[in-house]
Amino acid sequence: MSKPWYKQVWPWILISIPVFSVLKAVHTVYIMNQHSPDLVVDDYYAEGKAINQNLSLYREAAARNLHAKVLLAGNKAILTFDTNSILDEDLTLDFVHNTLAAQDFKVIAHRSGESMYVAELPVTPTGRWNLVVHDNANQWKLRASLSLPAIDAIKLTY
């Protein structure tokens, strides 16, 4: 007399394959819900309007003929303007990570001399970053794409 099916190995091996697949699918869905991407925007129209408003701030920097370079040395950011423009005592530097919004940070750069600003960074950034520099009244903006660590100063553009 042969053994009943539930006491044999092969039925359990065949049953375990789909069960394992279902458990792995549930686990994948759980992980995807916990780590949703930061780059997806829900309201594209509102985001587009905000981008158009930001472009006017870059045009204002071009009209003021602002040219600057930034040098990142360790945990310091040194911002140098080419000409002696009428600028505030403090400027804001927004460091935006390309893919991880949780790593974004903002620092205040204080005037150190005639056309130089220095800021202390909370971390030493590495990898790909976007830097946006603007005044406290938010009348103009300059930007740069950074690939860190960098040896030379990086030019800010409109």
Q: Would you kindly provide a written description of the structure presented here, covering whatever features stand out?
A:
- With 158 residues, the chain is α+β, with helices and mostly antiparallel strands.
- Helices cover 29% and strands 33% of the residues.
- It is built from two helices and eight strands; from the N terminus they run H-H-E-E-E-E-E-E-E-E.
- It has helices at residues 9-34, 44-63, and strands spanning 68-73, 76-81, 90-97, 105-111, 116-120, 127-135, 141-148, 154-156.
- The chain has an eight-stranded antiparallel β-sheet.
- Strand 3 and strand 4 form a beta hairpin.
- It starts with 8 loop residues before the first helix and ends with a strand.
Brief write-up:
With 158 residues, this protein is of the alpha+beta class. Helices cover 29% and strands 33% of the residues.
* Number of extended strands: 8
Q: Helix fraction? A: 25-40%
Cα(first) to Cα(last) distance is 86 Å
Based on secondary structure, the structural category is: alpha+beta
The order of strands across the largest sheet is: 7-6-3-4-5-2-1-8
- Principal-axes geometry comes out as elongated
Oligomer: single chain
Report low-confidence residues grouped into runs of 5 or more. none
- Averaging pLDDT over every residue, what do you get? 86
